[in-house]
Design brief:
This protein is of the alpha+beta class. It contains 2 helices and 12 strands. The longest helix has 26 residues.
Length: 166
């Protein structure tokens, strides 16, 4: 069990996710995105956040959910990560931002018996309950390391197939 202070709850599809509120810089309405050529699907591009260039990722894609059109509730959450000992600022697009709140008992638990299912749990720091509903706490630092590793391995496999075909 892990003690958790305040969280920001986010919705993607019908699921409830959370990030530590102390990692949130700000919440924005959708804004223009400058696309990047040959970017992986989860990397939407770059946005302007108060004069700074910030990369924008699609939380739905990272979480393995299908892509959907933005709605009036869609928000961009600007967050900071610990990236190799330095602070990195990124943004994620979520279907909706719900509220700043606490977990019912201020604790997170590991996903029970996750190892039995060969499930990649690096994206999740634990499960808690908020107002009686399950909430999945996203491990921001590990999530982007896992996404980077998965993208790199796909690129390596793609290059290997290209070389074999040549």
């Amino acid at each position: 069990m892990t003690n958790v202070t305040q969280i920001l709850t986010l919705g993607c599809s019908d699921d409830l996710y959370a990030v530590p509120v102390d990692r949130v810089q700000e919440i924005l309405d959708p804004c223009p995105v400058s696309r990047l050529p040959h970017a992986p699907a989860h990397l939407l591009g770059v946005i302007d956040v108060r004069g700074d260039d910030v990369v924008l990722a699609d939380l739905r894609i990272i979480l393995g959910l299908p892509v959907c059109a933005d709605t009036a509730a869609t928000r961009i959450v600007v967050l900071w990560l610990n990236r190799e000992g330095r602070r990195a600022v990124i943004a994620v697009k979520a279907d909706r931002v719900i509220e700043v709140t606490h977990l019912d008992d201020n604790t997170l638990t590991k996903v029970p018996e996750a190892g039995l299912f060969a499930w990649e749990e690096r994206l999740v720091s634990g499960i808690g309950r908020c107002k009686g509903k399950f909430v999945t706490m996203i491990d921001l630092d590990s999530m982007f390391q896992a996404v980077s590793a998965a993208t790199s391995s796909k690129t390596v496999r793609s290059h290997s197939k290209d070389e074999e075909a040549a």
